[in-house]
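The material for today's practical consists of a large collection of protein records. Backbone structure tokens are a discrete shorthand for how the chain folds in space. An example says more than a description, so a record of this kind follows:
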Amino acid sequence: MCYTVSIVKPAKRKNIVICADMSYKSFRERVSGFLHYAGSHMDWFVRVCDKWGIADSSRQPSPDGVVFIADASAGAVKPPSSSDNRRRKLPVPAIVLDPQNGQLGFRPDAEIRIDDEAIARACFQLFCRYHIKNVAYVGDINTLEAQHSARRKSTFLKAAKAAGLAAHAFDFDSRKGWTDAFNRMARWISNLPTPCGIFSYSDSVAKCVMDACRISHLRIPEQILLVGVDNDMVICENMQPSLTSIEPDFANAGYLAAQILDRILSTGRTRQPVIQTYGVKTVVERASTQDVTGSRRIVAAALEIIRLEAPTPDGLDVPILCRKLNVSRSLLERLFRTSLNCGVAERIRLTRLTALAERLPASHASIADVCHASGFASPTHVKTLFKKHFGMTLRDWRTSHATAGRASGLPRHHF
């Protein structure tokens, strides 16, 4: 008897370099999305570094593709001169995510750009829900952020004008001194008509706006409704009051970059660069935009208590919440149905499920312990709730969402 043995050759190893400053949350999320896609390609070897350039490539493994995130591309090659109208491509496929300074010294194979107009529209729609008649934009015009800030400002002010709202704008320019810029912004804010919704270019700019409101004796959210961008938890959750923020889909940007690079590596490079955009993942509403006039003040206080106390081992139920607010259950239920289109218990449950989904991939604790720490008394009951809401079992969620974290070598957290 004769047997035929087929030998499958292993796929050629592909070395991928990602250049990103990992100190930024938004950069880490882009890398996370890229690694999530790369995790299913066993022949991809991904290395994350701060900088990569032609000059030092001889001291590094020769890459098959390079991904630059924001200004990480600045050190790749020399900036183009005024006479260099035909920038050349790099020797290997190169993808740039959100080039900030517009002075790339090469022609990328693809660009993944944030949709600044979509972000501005999301904020404007939020203010419209609260029936705000006065709106304002605070931008950041330093050399790296100017182009994004200008696009958001333009879209936001055009939408306000079309809706017949009173619109104002201020560009925060710290190039001549941060203190002077801050004082000028504080004077500008003190003259705004109230109530007013302020859209800030980023969460860090929103933090400056909140400080300016404080010294101008303007109350948030009673007089100023404040919104930032990026949903940087370090900033948003530690401000008083907590900051509402628009979260761009940074992880999807990294995922798109990986998809495009995969296609280029498989089919070859194209003459013209591929251009794609990514938009808003979600709007995370917090205390800085809650409408606290009249009965909505109760809803705002309830949401803050739920945010802080529901996803904890001590737990929180509707009777306890009513006692803390000194209101009847029927009144609280009616206010939640009117303002949020959901019941109080439903909101508490959703807050716990969201916390559980965030904690599972980042913890070494057992699933039962993570459920308990998130406010669920019965792990058996939460399994059904979790799968119904997220479409995945607890174990599958932990495994799939921990892939990117393990690939990046970031530490996992303990309770």
Summary: Residues 79-83, 404-415 have pLDDT under 50 and may be disordered. Residues 177 and 307 are 37 Å apart (CA to CA). The chain is about 45% helix and 15% strand.
